[in-house]
Amino acid sequence: MSSIKNILPVLRMVWDAGPGVVGVNLALRLTAALIPVAVLAVARWIVDAAVAQAGSEREMTRQLVGLVALEFGLAALGGILSRAIQYANVVLAEKYTRHVSLRLLEHASQLDLATYEDPSFYDRLERARVQATDRLVMVEAIARFLQQGITTMSLCIGIFVFSPWILLNIIVCLIPATLAEARFGTQLYAMNFRHTPKRRELEYLRQLGASKESAKELKLFGLSPFLMQRYETLSGKIIEDVLGLWKRAFPRLSLLAMLGTLGYYGAYAFVVYQTAHGELSVGQLTFLIGAIAGANRTFQDLFVSAVGIIDQSLYISDMLAFFAMRPAIRSGQQALQVPRPIRQGFEFREVSFAYPGRTVPVLQSTSFRLAPGERIALIGENGQGKTTLIKLMMRLYDPTAGQILLDGVDLREYDLQDLWSQIGVVFQDFARYEMTAADNIAVGRIEWRTDRERITDASRKSLANTVIDKLPLGYEQMLGRRFEGGVDLSGGEWQKIALGRAYMRDAQFLVLDEPTAALDAQAELDVFNRFGELTSGKMAILISHRFSTVRMADRILVLRDGRISEEGSHEQLMARGGGYAAMYELQASRYR
Ligand SMILES: Nc1ncnc2c1ncn2[C@@H]1O[C@H](COP(=O)(O)OP(=O)(O)OP(=O)(O)O)[C@@H](O)[C@H]1O
């Protein structure tokens, strides 16, 4: 029941999604709620009037004709109202889905990168996403509850006027079934909650089994049967759980539902008995039978809706929990703007870092400086922490110990958005946007999306123009295979496009993580011949395993066991004859 408190924030969200349509929906439902009792009341008058006239040879009185017409009018209005409610629901569902999805996207974008690496985050996100796309189940349940509540109330008043005992009898017989339904709803929720990781894995297997990225390997390695078997086992467990729960609950729920029906027929027999003894008119009998049947049904519906609301509010708690998540990495109260130009550059002061949930540090008391205009190459074996180091410089993570300074001020003091706006980056695992070629470059500085001159300029600098000029639709060509008319590119071609984004950014600090790994030898040379000019006056860090690339840097840092083990220009490091020289020799010897 404690989850009931979730209803208010959700109603707030629904209201924000479309106040107008919510108002219309409510007005329609309130009117529709009173139709059943009105229909029964008119039916009672009709029957009594018809019975009074029965046997006489007279024409139907005008009053009777009027009553029948009124009944017809009410029934017709009921039909129109229920259609209108459906229509209002569709509009509200669309608006609500859009509103929540946009909030979801906005909120997800503000969360820490570390959050994305936590599997429980994905479980929560998955549940929140289901809420966003489940289209208003909860809100519909509340609206229905209100409508049913008013209908039930009006019918109950009708019954109460004739006999409070009949009403009591119906209510008492329905309570056990209701409580049992509520308990069942909670058990169902708990089970679905437990299933989220499994369902996420099923979704992953479904995608893996039928995606462009994995199709080649699946065919060649003959992996489909393996994936299918895994899917079958996993979903088998879910089916088993679901069936087990239903099987256990079925006898209890059916028995208690029968008790409810018994209450209804007890009341039914009582009014028939009273009419037979002349204590009720035929019209009153008609009204009461209709009202008892109606109240019995709406009572049950009412409780089902109430259980639905409680049930949904449990699910909603996941969405609210997602929205309540706050990023740890954010701008301070009086955040500073990054100096333009940066005068002293970056300084790592005894920086240590371990990923959240890991005990082994990736960096340990690392110190170095990067001066304005300087280009540093970062090298080291796989997993030594090169990418981690640049993620710290971009404040995608904060150090576990030590400080990173920019112009002598801790990075945490700067406004995050402003800091990021000054960094141009090509990640090792850069994104391939299934959008046009122009947009793929423009994402580097999306505010300049319509500035074709800047886009072409950035693609010239990164050699992306050599790719784009060959595309049938040039800059307007849709890239990737997901959408109609899309053209896929080779790994190196995508890399040139990603490099274009970094130049589009026009930032003070450039970070290139394996920027030429997929480029052919000529393209790599061309890119780096330009790199010198394009980064002049800017700070740049580049990570590479290719020594041909690394040599171009002003200074080279060798990362080893979480520390900078060597530092200097190519010539200095070669002369030292340490680890760098050994690695260089190893690579060079393969070409001789
Ligand atoms: N998000 C993460 N969560 C936990 N551990 C991580 C994460 N990213 C990287 N690591 C670990 O941190 C270490 C350093 O990773 P990093 O990617 O910085 O290495 P790298 O030097 O860039 O390697 P490579 O040359 O293979 O790109 C590795 O042991 C890796 O397993």
Automatic annotation (TrEMBL):
InterPro entries: AAA+_ATPase, ABC1_TM_dom, ABC1_TM_sf, ABC_transporter-like_ATP-bd, ABC_transporter-like_CS, P-loop_NTPase, Type_1_exporter. The chain crosses the membrane at residues 20-43, 64-85, 152-175. Keywords: ATP-binding, Cell membrane, Membrane, Nucleotide-binding, Transmembrane, Transmembrane helix, Transport. SMART domains: AAA. GO terms for cellular component: plasma membrane. The keyword Lipid metabolism does not apply. It comes from the Bacteria. The keyword Nucleotide-binding applies. Residues 346-586 form the ABC transporter domain. One of its GO terms (molecular function) is ATP hydrolysis activity. It is a multi-pass membrane protein. It is found in: Cell membrane. Gene3D superfamilies: ABC transporter type 1, transmembrane domain (1.20.1560.10), P-loop containing nucleotide triphosphate hydrolases (3.40.50.300). It holds the Pfam family ABC_tran. Residues 26-311 form the ABC transmembrane type-1 domain. PANTHER family: ATP-BINDING CASSETTE SUB-FAMILY B MEMBER 10, MITOCHONDRIAL, ATP-DEPENDENT PERMEASE MDL1, MITOCHONDRIAL. This is ATP-binding cassette, subfamily B. It comes from Stigmatella erecta.
